[in-house]
Amino acid sequence: MRLTHCLSIATLSLALLGAGRANAQTDEEKAAARSLATQGADALRDKRYADAVDLLTRAEAVIHAPPHLLLTARAQVGLGRLVAARESYLKVVREELPAGAPSAFKRAQQEAKDELAALEPRIASLRIAVTGPGAGDMSKVTVKLDDQPVTSALVGVHRPIDPGKHVVSANATGRDPVKQEVTLGDGEKKDVSLELKEGPLVEGPSAGAGPTTNPGVTPDAGKGSGALRIAGIAAMGVGGAGLVVGGVFTGLWASKSADADAAFNACTATACTAEQRAKVSDLDDQAASRGTIAIIGLAAGGAVAGAGLALFLVSNGNKAEGKPAGAMVVPFVTPNGAGLVGRF
User: Fold this and answer.
1) What CATH fold (topology level) applies to the domain 3-120?
2) Which pLDDT does position 336 carry in this prediction?
3) For residues 124 and 241, what is the distance between their CA atoms, to the nearest angstrom?
4) DSSP, residue by residue, 160-200
5) 198 pLDDT exceeds 60?
6) In the CATH scheme, what is the homologous superfamily, with its name and number, of domain 124-195?
7) Residue 272: exposure state from Cβ atoms within 10 A (0-12, 13-18, ≥19)
8) What is the pLDDT of residue 332?
9) pLDDT of 94-107, one tens digit each?
10) pTM, 2 dp
11) Is the separation of the CB atoms in 239 and 303 below 8 Å?
12) Strand 124-131's sheet: what is its strand order?
């Protein structure tokens, strides 16, 4: 890697930008991109490859320049991400530069071609195959490479991959998951076969085993408690939202009330004009409407949140004691207040 002049490439490329998309950039954006590219080149020189990729990617997002992609590819090689580096090199190589393109652009393209040719033989290749019961319908099989899903189109064929250690897994509905590690060297080509086994993922109770529930507790009791728990959590969320709305409109009511007072005080020294009276009246109406919403939001939000908390506590009690879900809590809101009514 020719790092001795990578910094000058980045600086020169930005200084010479004067055509194409760069014309739409502001001076501030150009300066920012130049700074990011310089920092990225410094990070690459210091072998801080992850920082270099981040900084150079940001510079490229502001202003496109082939040297940005060239330096990004070099940083990706340093990280061992050869497949990603190959794509970065290809973007530089495949770009059609105009006849008047800066010399830094042309030099970056030539260096990308040379480095890509040296990189290609280092990229490894891996084919993932899935066999066994259930493998015939790949729509029901989830294949992952290093915890990242693999599209079914790439299963059963060789694909480029970075050298190093990788973990491949397959999981099908009703089957035990299969996992395998594979290590590839530079340019190495390997096959990995994942065989799905017979048998359910989770086995049920053995034949002749007695009931697993507590004596005197019906199987449906847990379901009722779970429903109450979910309803309680949902109600607390809705109630909390109501309290937030009430709080917001309380602030708006106070603000409009202050505006109305200010407008009224402005005309107390002399008789209020019709326009001033109309303004005060309008501000009073706005304050009243916001105050009404605030009261409703706070009252209803508090009631619903309280009901949710009660449901949540009841569900935990039922779950711990094995009681059937027979409790009911309902919030109410009236012009004179709000509260809860229910049975346990």
Assistant:
1) 1.25.40
2) 53
3) 53
4) EE-SEEEEEEEEETTS--EEEEEEE-TT-EEEEEEEPPSS-
5) yes
6) Carboxypeptidase-like, regulatory domain (2.60.40.1120)
7) middle
8) 53
9) 999 999 999 999 99
10) 0.54
11) yes
12) 158-161, 124-131, 189-195
